[in-house]
Amino acid sequence: MTLGVVQKQSRNEAGVTQQELGQELNLSRSMISEIEAGRRKMPRDVVRKATKLLDDGFYAMAAAQEVLGEGWIPKLDGVDLHRSAVREKALEELQEAMEQISATSSVNRPDRGRHDDIKDTLIESIDVIVCLSHLVAVYCQEYGLSWTDMWREHRRKLEERGYIKKKSAPKGAR
C-alpha cells in the first residue's frame, strides 16, 4: 500500500479532513488529495510531522517504507487485521521463529555452507517483526492508545536499562 492510501485511511479513522490535515502540515487541500491519490509524493520534510499528527502505527510503517523502500515493514492488506486474528498469528509466528532460532547454532564461527539455515532463521525473525508491528498498531487503534507514546515509553525503558544512551537536549535548548 502506498503512503497516500494509508494516509487517507489514517486521516479518515482520525476524523480529520484533507483541509484540516493540509492546514496542520502547511500544504493545500489539493496537495493532500494528490498525495492520497498517488499522483504526488509527500514531501520528506513533512512526513515526520504528519506521522506525529496522525499518530497511527500503520501510517508510521508506510512513512518509513516510503523513505527506506523495501528495507522496512509494509502495511499488510491481504490479511485479517482483527485483533484476535493478529494475536493468533503473532503466537504462531513467534513459535516458528523460536523453533528455527533454537535449531540454528551460533556458537561456532559462521560457516558459509550453512547460509540456508541462517536465511531461514532471518526470514522467520522478519516474519515476527512484521507480525508484532501489526499487533502493536492494531492494539493501539483498537484500545485508543498512542503509537508514538508507546514507542516513547519503550525508548525510556531502553534508556533506563542502559541499552541506549539518553538523548541529550539540542544545543541552544538548555
Layout of strands and helices, then pairs:
Blueprint: H1 3-14, H2 18-25, H3 29-36, H4 44-54, H5 57-68, H6 83-103, H7 115-143, H8 147-160
Mind explaining what this structure looks like?
- The protein has 174 residues and is mainly alpha-helical.
- Helix content is 66%, strand content 0%.
- It folds into two domains: 3-71, Orthogonal Bundle (434 Repressor (Amino-terminal Domain)), CATH 1.10.260; 83-160.
- The chain is built from eight helices and no strands.
- The termini are far apart.
- The model has no long low-confidence stretch (mean pLDDT 91).
Sum up the structure in keywords.
single chain, 174 residues, mainly alpha, 434 Repressor (Amino-terminal Domain), 8 helices, DNA binding, Lambda_DNA-bd_dom_sf
